[in-house]
From TrEMBL:
<dbReference type="InterPro" id="IPR000863">
    <property type="entry name" value="Sulfotransferase_dom"/>
</dbReference>
<feature type="domain" description="Sulfotransferase">
    <location>
        <begin position="58"/>
        <end position="318"/>
    </location>
</feature>
<dbReference type="GO" id="GO:0008146">
    <property type="term" value="F:sulfotransferase activity"/>
</dbReference>
<comment type="similarity">
    <text>Belongs to the sulfotransferase 1 family.</text>
</comment>
<keyword id="KW-0808">Transferase</keyword>
<protein>
    <recommendedName>
        <fullName>Sulfotransferase</fullName>
        <ecNumber>2.8.2.-</ecNumber>
    </recommendedName>
</protein>
<dbReference type="InterPro" id="IPR027417">
    <property type="entry name" value="P-loop_NTPase"/>
</dbReference>
<dbReference type="Pfam" id="PF00685">
    <property type="entry name" value="Sulfotransfer_1"/>
</dbReference>
């Protein structure tokens, strides 16, 4: 069962059928397109159209994550931050109170280019706030060549894995029963996961952030959880819209943190009972929103295996999980 029912083009279906494949879990299979793991012909269609047609603007702000790394949270935080002059955070009419963050900051390959056509982006005002799950190497050249800003949110792979493990269940996908946690875990460790390998995804953006820190900001989910105000101020400085002293003393930073908190967003009517314009229920994006939930799922063998892989993959990079 696909997330959406509309049919991909024959060309994409045929191309997908020629690609190496593995068992999947959010989709029944994962297909490897030039090093990138993709679940459906429609996603491939979106990826290709995005790569071929997207024209970046220097003022674009593009949010990047692997699935289940806290994308929804990052979208809320950056939307509230960038639009704080237009939409006062304490106001009763703030868009985040009535719309899910995915409707306010749309995915490029999974939404705007999903139909394989060139979308009309003329209603987006500058700076355009957009998002993607694509690895750095697969981004359209126009993004790589532009001065657009990339904000990358990374999450501990253990919690990302657990969140991914739960996601098909939350979407109500039926074949989940046939997947054991061990089987999915082995795939994840091998790098077989949506828009993965996870390891290359994280490392490539990490390296880009070190090379060009005014262009790519690398954030960690766990650090935002620990000190949200500090990370929000980092974000504001990176986006060249730092908080003024007046804003800080009047509590704007805290208000944004509160507005975007798991407790607040997940309890809003819109996120409890409404759907995205794509038909996906908003509540699927909110589960526990905690650090360390992996401890409730990992066996000793899983802990050892992942520790070993993490060490191998990220040693010498300066990254720590
Ligand atoms: P869990 O499954 O561990 O609870 P994504 O947004 O990339 O799909 O990631 C979803 C994960 O982020 C889920 O993790 C979800 O609960 C968590 N999440 C969603 N909104 C959040 C928020 N405002 N603050 C912290 N975590 C949030």
């Amino acid at each position: 069962k696909c997330l959406r029912e509309d049919e991909p083009s024959e060309e994409c279906k045929n191309l997908l059928a020629t690609l190496p494949k593995e068992k999947g879990w959010i989709s029944s299979h994962l297909y490897n397109y030039k090093g990138l793991w993709i679940g459906h012909a429609k996603t491939l269609q979106g990826v290709l159209a995005f790569q071929q047609h997207f024209q970046a603007q220097d003022s674009d702000i593009i949010l990047v994550t692997t699935p289940k790394s806290g994308t929804t949270w990052l979208k809320a935080l950056v939307f509230a931050l960038v639009n704080r002059m237009n939409y006062p955070v304490s106001g009763q009419h703030h868009p985040l109170l009535f719309k899910n963050p995915h409707d306010l900051v749309p995915f490029l390959e999974l939404r705007l280019y999903f139909d394989g056509k060139v979308p009309d982006l003329s209603s987006f005002t500058s700076p355009r706030l957009l998002s993607t799950h694509m690895p750095y190497a697969s981004l359209p050249k126009s993004i790589q060549d532009s001065k657009s800003k990339l904000i990358y949110l990374c999450r501990n792979p253990r919690d990302t894995f657990v969140s991914m493990y739960h996601f098909p269940n939350r979407l109500g996908l039926s074949y989940i029963e046939t997947n054991s946690v061990e089987e999915i875990f082995d795939l994840f460790c091998k790098g077989v996961s949506h828009m993965g390998p996870f390891w290359d995804h994280v490392l490539d953006y990490w390296k880009e952030s070190l090379k060009n820190h005014t262009r790519v900001l690398f954030l960690m989910y766990e650090q935002i959880k620990e000190k949200p105000e500090i990370q929000l101020k980092r974000l504001a400085e990176f986006l060249e819209c730092p908080f003024s002293t007046e804003e800080e003393t009047s509590g704007v930073v805290d208000e944004i943190v509160k507005l975007c908190s798991f407790e607040n967003l997940s309890n809003l009517e819109v996120n409890k009972n409404e759907k995205l314009s794509t038909g996906v229920e908003n509540k699927v994006f909110f589960r526990r929103g905690e650090v360390g939930d992996w401890k409730n799922y990992f066996t000793t063998e899983m802990v050892e295996k992942l520790d070993h892989i993490i060490e191998q993959k990220i040693q010498g990079s300066g990254l720590k999980f």
